[in-house]
Amino acid sequence: MNTNYQRGKIKNRQEDTKKTILVIDNEFDIINAIKIWLERHNFAVCAFTGPLLASEHFKNILNKISLVLSDIIMPRMDGYELVSKIKVTTQGQGYLNVSI
Q1: For the chain, which terminal residue's Cβ has fewer other Cβ atoms within 10 angstroms, N or C?
Q2: How many other CB atoms are there within 10 angstroms of residue 100's CB atom?
Q3: What CA–CA distance (Å, rounded) separates 65 from 27?
Q4: What residue spans define the domains of the chain?
């Protein structure tokens, strides 16, 4: 498995030809399971274990993201707050808040 950690962000390879999904959940095991499943179905995944870090980095990766998949219940910022914060800067992305 090609996964590295950097201050709450799970880094992975991305290919320009794949649709990229931003995944945010405070539990690593859930992110890892989602990441494995999505990559098996030919999606690129940009994953974060914290909503604050995800919102900070979102501006830099905005044009690469096709879908935002976020947990609802997370510490310091819930999924609804996160999506409303990043939604201000986007057009055309899909958003999916889920409770896992």
Answers
A1: N
A2: 12
A3: 21
A4: 44-100
